[in-house]
Amino acid sequence: MRELSGTLSAKDMKMGIVVSRFNSFFTRQLLAGAVDCLTRHGGSEANLTVAWAPGANELPLVAQRMAKSGQYDAIIALGAVIEGATPHADLINTQVSRSLAALSLDSGLPVINGVVCARTIEQAIERSGTKAGNKGSDAAETAIEMVALIKLMDRKAKA
Ligand code: INI
Fold first, then answer.
1. How far is the CA of 4 from the centre of ligand 1 (A)?
2. Using a 6 Å cutoff on CB, does residue 54 contact ligand 1?
3. From ligand 1's centre to the CA of 156, what distance in Å?
4. pLDDT digits (tens, 9 = 90+) for 2-61
């Protein structure tokens, strides 16, 4: 049996991070969690580019621009959609998550969805650096693993 899995070293990885300004009380914590995760795994802040989008709805287009630039190994999208604040939260979440998934397949790059989808402000707090962890940090860890896995698969394909 041959198993392939990505390591968790972010050394030399170039990451594009797009983060929404809407609900920035939460998204700033997600960004801090993502940067902390990447640097603790050996990544360098010099290899990170952060773009601010107005809201979660705008994350996919900015992520697409980053993916098309060819400058990044992965794209991480961070946002916070809180249902209590909007009746169309489900629509935003569905649009964003489908678009990011489609972009990942179209571009061949890991495009990681780090959008907190919360029913309440309390749930958003829990997922932005308190008792349910930090979704930005989780997204960054997923990005590292995916970049490492894809690089490994590319090396195996060439060997
Ligand atoms: N954008 C968010 O990132 N989170 C939200 O909770 C939210 N709410 O509640 O509406 C939100 N709306 C703005 C939206 O993402 C777009 O920026 C706007 O609709 C313009 O396209």
1. 38
2. yes
3. 42
4. 999 999 999 999 999 999 999 999 999 999 999 999 999 999 999 999 999 999 999 999
- The β-bridge partners of 116 are 80
Q: Is the CB of 26 under 6 A from ligand 1?
A: no
Phi, psi of 95 (to 5 degrees): -60, -45
Q: How many whole angstroms separate alpha carbon 90 and alpha carbon 141?
A: 25
Residue 85: pLDDT band with limits 50, 70, 90: low
Rounded to whole angstroms, how far apart are CA atoms 69 and 142?
21
Name 87's Cβ contacts closer than 8 Å, sequence gap at least 6. none
Give me the active site residues, please. 88
Which residue's CA is minimally distant from atom 13 of ligand 1?
A: 55
Using alpha carbons, select from 93, 111, 95, 100 the residue that is nearest to residue 17: 111
Question: Which atom number of ligand 1 is nearest to the Cα of residue 115?
Answer: 3
Residue in this structure with the two tokens 């990544």, named with its chain if needed: 43
Cα-Cα-Cα-Cα dihedral of 144, 148, 150, 154, to 10°?
A: 160
